[in-house]
Amino acid sequence: MNTIVNYAHRGASRYCPENTMAAFKKSLELGATGIETDVQMTKDGRLVLIHDESVQRTTGQPGEIKDLTYRQITELDAGSWYSSEFAGERIPTLGQLLDWIEPTGMMLNVELKNNMEPYEGMEEKVIAAIRKRGLSQRVLISSFNHYSLVICKRIAPEIRTAILYGENLFEPWKYARSIGASALHPYYKFMNHSMVQQAADQGIIYNPFTINDPAEMRELIRMGVSGIITDYPDRLHELLQGSAAGR
């Protein structure tokens, strides 16, 4: 069986409104074996799943997550912008996703969106939620805020961390090891077969983002990546099934 993790980017975000329970549930139906999601923190300290710092794009309402209470967030419609079929979908909490994913066996990549807003105390809250449900071995914490990854590792050495980046880095596996990270999550254009192999020799894995073209997926599979983050988990599932069948 192919062990590459099929991470659904914000859930099945090309079939459902991103970062909603509908998108997460759909990704499982489409063959995803992992979910990638984004965590922000409300004014009153609740962890909610949304990519942007503002709710404008996905709810049509003004406001920054940091300035809204959880109750205000729950009143927003996070589905109608995508399609009337999803009218009434809400912005979920991290806890809701963790409770749902626990019995599925899926992996979870939690991206801390604290590179624009500091969200003091976010690391502790995310880790507490993961530990509460006994999911430390199935969760990967990633962020563009690498200082935050160091904090996470100090708090919870048992939870793996991943460095997000979107530029060419020199020998990024050495950097990963220096901050205790287990994985590299680059934009897929900034990697090649040699880099994947050199990282693997150092015990560091690659989970690139966001790959939607089947030909590019095939190339990454040949490179030996450990996971692929995609908006189309069904496309990747089909390729992985074919790859496994061809062995």
Automatic annotation (TrEMBL):
Q: Which GO terms describe its biological process?
A: lipid metabolic process
One Pfam family name is GDPD
GP-PDE domain mapped to chain residues = 4-240
Tell me what this protein is called.
GP-PDE domain-containing protein
Q: What is the lineage of its organism?
A: Bacteria, Bacillati, Bacillota, Bacilli, Bacillales
A GO term for molecular function: phosphoric diester hydrolase activity
Any coiled-coil regions, as ranges: none
